[in-house]
Amino acid sequence: MTGILTQTHTKHNQTLEGVWLFLRRWLAHPLRMGSVVPSSQALCSRLVKHGWPETGTVVLELGAGTGVVSRAFLDAGLAPERLIVVEVDSDMVRHLRETLPGVTVIEGDARTLSDLLPARFRGRIGSVVCGIPLVLLPLSEQKRFIGAMESVAPGRGFLHFSYCVTSPLSGRKLGLDPKREAWTPLNIPPASVWRYLPAG
Length: 200
Description:
It is a single chain. By secondary structure, this protein is of the alpha/beta class. It has one domain: Vaccinia Virus protein VP39 (Rossmann fold, 3-Layer(aba) Sandwich). The protein is built from seven helices and seven strands, in the order H-H-E-H-E-H-E-H-E-H-E-H-E-E. A seven-stranded mixed beta sheet has the order 3-2-1-4-5-7-6. Helix 1 runs antiparallel to helix 4 and helix 2 (41-51) crosses helix 3. The radius of gyration is 16 Å and the shape is globular. The termini are far apart. Residues 4-14 and 30-37 have low confidence and may be disordered.
């Protein structure tokens, strides 16, 4: 019983620490963050449902932040060795490495994915979840991120969550076929999960 209480207390502390870290990093770099609060459990569950990888493949998460989406995949039963997270903020990287044992946590700019991704994962990316607020970036930068994802997971496309009412990315300008997979009014603010596949 003591062990269960200790684990619950530790998890609660990690959650509070993660929220506080998220808020601090949002204040420091608001354009890197898509929201002032971490993604809700309702949104995370939809990302897990639509981003679950095929047997033998791994999930690649970009812009992992404090790891709430990562933990949702792990809590749903994904083995830690089947999860790769990329984060550019060094404070968040430190937090992710402390709270996600067994997960491959990469510090770096997702626009250079082909250089960042370890060789053992080449050809094994089954699902890409992009938490980077691409809608805030100019078209040229959106193309760079999308090209980077395509370079490591050709033809797979990616999941992207957004608080926009319509698609946050222009399929016509970016050569993508957008599909809204889910919407959750329980997130703050309400969010949609979009799947983008290469057009044609």
